[in-house]
Fold:
Amino acid sequence: MFSQFQIIWSLMRGYRLRYGLALASLVAATTLNYGVPLVGSATIDYAVAGKALGPDTPALIVRLLGLLGGAANLRAHLWLAPLAMVLLSALSGFFSYLKGRHASLASDGIARQLKDELYDHLNHLPARYHDRADTGDLVQRCTSDVETARQFLAAQVMEIGNALILAATALPLLLSLSVPMTLVSFSLIGPIILYGYIYFRQVKHYFKAVEEADGALTAVIQENLTGIRVVRAFARQEHERAKFAGPNALYRDRSIRLLRLMSWYWSISDFVAFSQIGLTLIVGAHWIVAGRLSVGMLFAFLSYLGIMLWPLRMMGRILTDLGKTSVALTRIREILAVAREPAPDGPATPQPGPLTGRIAVRDLHFHHAAAGLPATGRGALNGVSFDLHPGETLAILGPSGSGKSTLMHLLLRLYDYTEGSIQFDGRELSSLPRPWLRAQIGVVMQEPFLFSKTLRDNLRLGRGDAPDQEIEAAARAASIHETILSFEHGYNTLVGERGITLSGGQRQRVAIARAVLKRPPLLILDDAMSAIDAETEALILQALRERRGRATTLVIAHRLSTLAHADRVIVLDHGRIIQTGTHAELAAQDGLYRRLWQIQTNVEADFQTELTPR
Structure:
C-alpha cells in the first residue's frame, strides 16, 4: 500500500501547494466542527443542569464557557449557544468549500497533465508496439483509468487526510474530557480499521479483473463500430452480437463478484459502527445513573463518535477507490514504461538542408520475428540492394508478401533493419532523427487515412501553412479538384471518421494530393492507385510525369500500367530482387514481369472486347 501512496505523491508534483491549501482548509473545518459538540455539552451541563465548575472540569469546557461570558451569562442568554453552533458550522462549511475547490482544481490539472503525457507518449512509441496493442484497451487506459485516478485525487485523498486528522486530534480531545469513556468509544474502531485493510488486499485483485474485462469489452465495441459497413455487408450482425455477448458476460460476472465483496464490507462495517454507538450509549447511560458521567458529556461523546465513525466507516470506500486507482495507475504506467522510438546514437547535430533524394540500399536484411513483430503474412527482405538517384522514379513490383511495403516501412524508419545499409545522401539512415527524416518524405499508404476534419485540413496535414492556390494545384495533380468543387461546401467539406463519407478512390486521391502538397524530396506511393479507375489513373500519372525531377519517387503497385512510366523497375519475390530494368526491357525478357504484363494485357483486351458493341 505504501508504494501506491508514493505513486500518488509523485503525481501531485506541481500541485502540492494546492493540496497543502486544501489540507489547511480541512484542518480549519475539522477544528471548527469539533467546537459544535463542546458548545452543546457545556450548555447542557453548566447552563441548563446548573452543574458547578470544579477542579475536575475539563480545561476545554472552562475556556469555552469563558468565551461565552461564563455559565451564569450563558444560562441567562441561552440563545448564545445555538448562535455559536450555527456560526461554527457555517465557518466549517466555508473551509470545507475551500478544501473541495483546491482539491478539485489540483486533481483536474493532474488529470489533464496525465492525459497530455499519455497522448504524447503514444504518438512516440515504436510501430511494433502499435502492431500488437489493442486500440480499445489503449482508449480505456487513456480515458476511464485517468478518470478513476482523477476522482480519487479529487475526493478520497482529502478523505484520507480527514481520517488522519480525526485520528490525530480526536483522541487527545476525548481523552481530555474522559479517559474511561474514550476507551469505551474507541473499543470497536480497531477491528473496523483491521477489517478495512484486509478488504483492501482483496478488492485490488477484483478491480484488476474488472478493468481488464472492461478493456476487452471496449475493444470489441471499437472494432465493431470501425468495421460496421463490413458487418452489414456480410449480414454478420448476429455473429457480432454473439461475439459481444462473451466479453459482456465476463464483465458482468466479474462486476457482480466485486459488488458482492463490497456488500459484505458495507454490511459488516455498518454493523460494527452502529454497535459502537450502541455500546457507547449503553455504557454512558449506565454511568450517568451511577453518577460517573454527565448528560452533557455523553452528548459530546456521542456527537464526536458520529463525526468520527462516518470517516472511519468511509475507509472502506477509500480503500475500495484506492484499490481501483492502484489498478488504473498500474495500467497507465505500463504504457508510460514502454520506451519511445530510440534517438540516433551520439550527440544530436544540426541537420543540413533538405534531402536531394539520393538513396543507396546495400545488402538489406529484415525479419519481422527478429524485430519482435508478428511474421504471419508479412514480407521480409533478404539481401536487397539498389540505388535511387535524385529526381528518378523507381517502381517496385512483386506478389503479396514479397517485401514491398516492408521496404517502405524501413525507409520511413517505422522499423529498423537488422543487417545491411540504407543511406540517404551518403548518411546512414539509422543516424538520422526520425522526425526530421519523415518531414523529408511524402507517403501515400495502402490504406489512406483521413481525419474527421475538412478536406482542406486533411490536405494541409503535412504542410500547415500551404496557401489555397497550392492546395488546389495539388488537388488538380491528383485529379480530385473537380470532385471537391462538386461538394456542397467544397474544400470546407467535413469528411467522416477515417474519411468514410468518401469513396475509396476519392480517399486515395486526397491522400496523393496531400503528399504532393508537402513538396517532399522523396515521394513514396504504396499501391496508392488500387481503387482509382484507369482513366483517372492515367491523368494522375501524367501529372506526376510533368512533375518529374522535382522529387525522387518510389512507386509500389500491382497494376503494371501504374509502373510503366517509371525510369526503372525492380521485381521482388520472397524478399529478393529477381529482375531489374525499364518497363520495355522487362516486358521483352522472360520472367515474372513479362508473365504479369501478358496476363494483365490479355485481361484488359478481353474486357474491352466484351464491352465493344457487336
The chain has a mean pLDDT of 80. The CA atoms of residues 485 and 491 lie 7 Å apart. DSSP finds 23 helices and ten strands in the chain.
